[in-house]
Amino acid sequence: MKLHCCGILPKLAYGPRERRLPLRDCFGPCGRRRHRTKARRRDKVPRSGPFAAPARRRLRGALRLNLRRRATSEPSAERAFRARTIERVADADPALWNAAALAGGPYNPFVDHRFLDALERSGSVGPGTGWSSTHIVLEDADGGPAGFAPCYWKSHSQGEYVFDHGFADAYERAGGRYYPKLQVAAPFTPATGPRLLVPPGVDRPSAQTALAAAMRGLMRQGGASSVHVTFATEEERALLVGEGFLPREDQQFHWRNEAYGSYDDFLGDLASRKRKQLKRERRDALADGVSVRHVTGSDLREAHWDAFFAFYMDTGARKWGRPYLNRRFFSLIGEAMPETILLVLAERAGRPIAGALNFIGGDALYGRYWGAIEERPFLHFEVCYHQAIDAAIERGLARVEAGAQGEHKLARGYRPVVTRSAHLFADPALSRAVADYLRRERSYVSVVQDALDDASPFRRGDQPV
After folding, report:
1. Which of 54, 174, 189 is nearest to 432 (CA)?
2. What are the structural domains, with CATH classification, of the chain?
3. Quick one: the chain helix, strand, coil %, rounded to 5?
4. How far, in Å, are 10, 29, 49, 146 from residue 139 at the CA level?
5. Each residue of 109-158: pLDDT tens digit?
6. Burial class of residue 327, CB neighbours in 10 A (0-12, 13-18, 19+)
7. How far apart are the first and last CA of the chain?
């Protein structure tokens, strides 16, 4: 899609340090040839970012974009969209947001309006966190809802799980300013899901293309260095690449349910030595009076969250230095969406000693957080991985997604899968450098993927495809 240089891109004046760009053909509504673009400041990154008061005033209100799209049934028809931003997801209609999220595939709890609202209401996202909400709302020519995108201004690169610290360091050493940047994601959540949300009845490719253009415009208007759409679906990533975003790939480990009736059926697909190893591992984890129970739905109580938060804080302090979520967040999700939560608790003599928080999606169980106040051999593997497999089989879910990283998951029957993201940079020089790096990184990911497949615990010839 070609952007109209004088209608689609935001019109900002950055003061005396500006220049007129070269003449070029205009592909916008005016249709004129050799159209001169608007004046733009020489600096790649404006001095006032979205956290400064003047920029905040600019970003409030509507970011208007007029996009020429051709309807599939009427090749000559035009379709116009208008995009605006909201500073709280609560300002979007929950039913419309969730309908758009569901239209992209099976239910994903991390783009559920309730989940994103709990992050904001609890203060886990917002002032002082480095995550500032600026969600895009797309409307059609009649003012009807046409799309949403969960977006955040970021002043750091924490809590994203697609690492760009190296890009930031290199750019700032070269004299640029990497932050703020625009993150399109479910905060603190390395789980693939829809990012360009389009409700039923709306031309999906057209609306998603309009959302991509809105991200580009918002990046420029806000003085951001880049846009990062992380853990996007394959369909979305392909569309974004077509709009000039750079593709990036990484790996996670997911367990796949091959119509197993029980955990023993799953073990039957493993090599004999691996079967014995996992049986011994589960037996040792639950020795000395340790038991495990699952808590979900209306059975969740504040006492459960108190216990789990102690586990979460212990892991967070050791792993990240500062946990991302606060205690109120867990109460809010327990109240708002209890049917999507599966809390696995390990107990000794009735006292919780470890736990794992899972979210139940339309076709997957998502393992998110784990912690323990008592160290035991293999307890982590039992509570996080084996119990998740038990739960997925019981519920008929297609897979378990156990979060980011972790080659140790391979031995527990979790197989490597590719995750996808898309990135756009305002500075062409930075974009070229990152594109070169990402080409080499994708080759490396592919080689590692093949090597990990060869190390699978499944019997040769019986591996799930």
Report:
1. 174
2. 1-42 (no CATH), 49-249+421-448 (3.40.630.30), 258-397 (3.40.630.30)
3. 35, 25, 40
4. 17, 19, 26, 5
5. 999 999 999 999 999 999 999 999 999 999 999 999 999 999 999 999 99
6. middle
7. 36
